[in-house]
Amino acid sequence: MNIPPELKYTQSHEWIRAESDGTLTIGITDHAQEALGDLVFIELPQVGRKVAAGEACAVVESVKAASDVYAPVAGEVIAANGEVVDAPEKVNADAYANWFYRLKPASAGDVAKLLDAAAYTKLAAEG
Amino acid sequence: MLRETPLHAVHRAAGAKMVDFGGWDMPVSYGSQIEEHHAVRCDAGMFDVSHMLPVDLRSANVRDFLRYALANDVGKLTVPGKALYSCLLRHDGGVLDDLIAYFLSEDWFRLVVNAATAEKDVAWLTTLAAERASALAIAPRRDLAMVAVQGPNARERVWQVLPGSRAASEPLKPFMAAEFGEYFIARTGYTGEDGFEVMLPATRAAEFWHALAAAGVRPCGLGARDTLRLEAGMNLYGQDMTEAENPLESGLAWTVDTKSPRDFVGRSAIATPPKRQLVGILLLDKGGVLRSHQKVHTAAGEGEMTSGTFSPTLSASIGFARVPVGVNADDRIEVEIRGKRLAARVVKPPFVRHGKRLV
């Protein structure tokens, strides 16, 4: 299972990269894309949207099933990656290179509360 | 505890993603289900369908019994080996199952029924036989495995693996079957492509599977099976038809034979014209994928999606919906996906046949 040690994770299988400017880059984990199978549709939040922690703000659909993608922390959406909307299969090929959206967190400390790679590895192995 | 087919260990060893399908632990895909789909459309793929149950019916009057038990008329089967698709109905017209009936000899027919409904079907046939054909012997054949080899090159690959079977199976027209030693080879399938469904002793299944794989036949899971059957315009029991609907409400009027004067189970119940019908749907707007239970809005009233998926051949979302009578092919309708109404077009299935798009 591919779980990069430098990223943070959620129980709902998003990965989060804390950028040097304080913003967060968010995608779905390799484990999530593997479980969903071939992705065929991705819907991302509008730039400028304010989201609460745990709020469903993106949608991913594979041939088999639809699934919500949740905001890991509260914040404002500052970018959405149109490339994955145009070619969802890129997420199957590399779930960490192909991010979904960027968030300016409401509180800088929130990201520390997310799962680290070790905790997510344990979670993914269980489910 | 999930049930396992004779090929279960083979699927596990291949690293297949497994899923509970009607109480059976079945492979949903071995890698990319879209690649598996294309393999069947362009070359050859194989499916373990051993969860389905062959049931042998034997007695001198088995044909008369099936002319009463089935909604389609096995009286049409005059050449041994010929097969017929039919619904098994309740007295009130509800669909208990859909199946294939093979005429093998005047005292032997074989039915192949769905996995999740197999026990229910056998119990139903036993009840009908007690009333109508007390001498009928009903033999479920869990000793057999079944492998569907499908695609434009599927038959050639089967002949590569079983060279001796070619003489018996090459002359077979679609919906015909022949026996070759312990193999039962039928030119049938659930993909819209040419190919065979092969029944064989469960003990030989793994060997046959590995030989086909070595000949270049790609293992395919239930995921690809679902996208292929949807493109081919074929119903899935439990989704597109259930006991709550009759065949006329499920796009299956063509399988109900009312031309012959025979009495059959459900006949009186389906004499009234249906108020609902099953139609094909092609999603026009972007915004998601069609799925079962989504709400459908038409000029004739509301309906519901019964199946839906992403079609790898069309690169668009397709499905079936049950809608009021009065909705016609080419009508624009709307499907509700996550609260948004997306434009879609009513189409007459199939969407794809023999590798070619039809919509």
Explain this structure to me?
- The complex is a heterodimer of chains A (127) and B (359).
- In chain A, 21% of the residues lie in helices and 33% in strands.
- Chain A has 127 residues and is of the alpha+beta class.
- Chain A has one domain (8-110): RNA polymerase II/Efflux pump adaptor protein, barrel-sandwich hybrid domain (OB fold (Dihydrolipoamide Acetyltransferase, E2P), Beta Barrel), CATH 2.40.50.100.
- Chain A has a six-stranded antiparallel sheet with strand order 1-2-3-9-8-5. Chain A has a three-stranded antiparallel sheet with strand order 4-6-7.
- In chain A, strand 1 (8-9) and strand 2 form a beta hairpin.
- Chain B is an alpha+beta fold and 359 residues long.
- Chain B has a domain at 275-357: Aminomethyltransferase beta-barrel domains (Elongation Factor Tu (Ef-tu), domain 3, Beta Barrel), CATH 2.40.30.110.
- In chain B, a hairpin with a 2-residue loop joins strand 20 and strand 21.
- Helices cover 20% and strands 34% of the residues of chain B.
- Chain B has helices at 8-13, 33-42, 62-69, 118-132, 154-161, 166-169, 205-214, 222-231; strands at 17-21, 24-29, 45-48, 53-58, 83-89, 95-105, 108-113, 137-140, 144-150, 177-180, 183-186, 195-201, 218-219, 276-283, 295-298, 301-311, 316-324, 332-337, 340-347, 352-353, 356-357.
- Chains A and B meet through strand 4 of A and loops of B.
Provide the structure class of chain B: alpha+beta
Proportion in helices of chain A:
10-25%
- Span from first to last CA of chain B? 43 Å
- Seen as an oligomer or otherwise, the chain set is heterodimer
Counting structural domains of chain A, the number is 1
The name of the CATH superfamily of one domain in chain B reads: Aminomethyltransferase beta-barrel domains
**CATH class membership of one domain in chain B:** Mainly Beta
Structural class of chain A: alpha+beta
SSE string of chain B, helix = H, strand = E?
HEEHEEHEEEHEEHHEEEHEHEEEEEEEE
Q: Mind summarizing the main beta sheet of chain B?
A: 6 strands, mixed
